[in-house]
Amino acid sequence: MAKIPTSRIGRTAKLGGMVAGQGLKWAGTRAANSARSDEKAQAANEKRAMETAEELVARLGEMKGAAMKLGQVLSTIDFDVIPESEREQFKERLSSLRDDAPQVPFKDIEKVLKKDLGGKISDHFAEFDEQAIAAASIGQVYRATTHDGRDVAVKVQYPGVAEAVETDLRNISVLLPLVKRLAPGLDTKAIAGELRERIGEELDYELEAQHQRTVARALRGHPDIRIPEVDTAMSTRRVLVTEFVAGRGFNEIKALPEDERDHFAEVVYRFFYGLLTRAHLAAGDPHPGNYLLADDGRVCFLDFGLMRYVPQDYLDGERALARAVVEGDADAVHAGLAALGYLPAPHEFEPERVLEQLRSAGEWYFVPGFRRLDPEYVRNAIEVGSSPRSPYFEQMRRQTIPPQALLIRRMEGMLFAVLGELRAGADWGAMALEYLSDAPPSTPLGERDATHWNGVRA
């Protein structure tokens, strides 16, 4: 793989060249459309949108850093201009940037290890497998053994990626016009602002280690959840060393019997909503690669770089809004959306209409009763919540997501998709009330979870 360009000139040239080139192509398409029928003009616009989307994915994938992370964040957004038949495939390609990241040669990674840890790798590890077991947007993960015999996972930041990200964060505004072409209703400035804050934090593995220790401390001794312990003494700003946990990955879990998949799914659901409600932490990356079924039967959660502390007052507002949806209180739903910042012009929205929108899109979560999710159910719900075919589409285009909620909405959307892939069944609505209204546990697993959290608070 070519060296990551770290200079501002190099990074800006890649992004700016893409945006300028696409701008000229769009101008050419508009000029040609003046002589075309409406049908042919629409087809030309869709073709141009797809070519733009393809180039966006290719360039972001090449660059890593914040530019690539932007692609992952955008995978949760609906793109109005892209042909509907291609939209989900495009979003999947954006999302896959995390998994398809080309690996950096070990000789370059070795330089980071030597500089940050000091001395040779053999000074710190008895064994170190030079073949990465995972690659992501800002680093790669390796398996190693310490001199005292512990099996560990070593996450190492790409050399030069911090400088590249710093440049990307300054240049992110260059990409906004292109993103705006694909999603005209998107508040790109809000997303860019949240991205700057979150990615700046994600670059600091010491901060990620702090997050992981916080979560591990809160969940230590949990009967169903496992968090790898951090080796603080061996970790630095660019190197994170944690306990290695063996287990089955997502593809193996999807092949398990129904009852085992349901159990796994409920643990995953309770982990993310419990962490948000009880620890005020939004874990924004429920990617299937970030948890596994450990050999001891617990679900092990990985990667704590993308997290946000949610203030109590804002979380209270989100919970009150969700309760109003469950209770069917249209006026309270409208008032809650306005107060939290979802409705730029509240007077333009009818309370009953926004209530219908939220209940339709979030039926699985807002309406109690056993429901087995599957990919088709998830696609239909997403269509109601974002597709131009949705009866609420014009209303949704005038709404926005406040920056404080971006990570929460990302968590919910990705988690919903994961549960659908698992074809998991549960009374999700009854479980939701435990976190929205402090309702008593609705399942035996919920009782164990509540007992644990009550012990933490005691």
UniProtKB/TrEMBL annotation:
Keywords, in A-Z order: ATP-binding, Coiled coil, Kinase, Nucleotide-binding, Transferase
InterPro entries xrefs: ABC1_dom (IPR004147), ADCK3_dom (IPR034646), Atypical_kinase_ADCK (IPR051409), Kinase-like_dom_sf (IPR011009)
Ranges in a coiled coil: 36-63
Start and end residues of each ABC1 atypical kinase-like domain: 97-333
Domain of life: Bacteria
GO molecular function: kinase activity
Pfam family, one: ABC1
Annotated family: Belongs to the protein kinase superfamily. ADCK protein kinase family.
Name of the protein described by the UniProt record: AarF/ABC1/UbiB kinase family protein
Organism whose genome encodes this protein: Svornostia abyssi
